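It is worth pausing here to work through a concrete case rather than discussing structure prediction in the abstract. The textbook approach is simple: state the sequence, then state the predicted structure, then interpret. We follow exactly that order.
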Amino acid sequence: MVRSFVAGLRAARRIGAADRQRRAGNTEGAFRAYASALEVLAARDIQKEAPWCRSAASVALVGYCRAAQELDRKAELLATLVHWRPFVLGWRHTPITPDEEEQLRWMEQLFHHLTQELPPRVST
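Step two, the predicted structure:
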């Protein structure tokens, strides 16, 4: 539990950095910072359902999605949505706020749009 709490704090700092980058007009910097926050939260031993981790992941995902769209990084965006999709689907059943409910719905629509637009990868 302590590791999850510390991870939530680390992710929150990175989300704050991403927000500052976004406000400064640096979408690339925001994209990297949101990705870094998600990387912290994606670690296996982090409890994704802990309130501070869930909240941070939801905020970081929305920011990441918006930055990725602006930068036209569709393949990276889809890969991230695929990774986080099991959590997003679970969170949709118990949204914390009406805003989160709307954002989770939007991410699911974005996922479906991207899966139709991008061809599936062929493994070699």
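Step three, interpretation. The chain has a mean pLDDT of 92. The first helix runs from residue 2 to 23.
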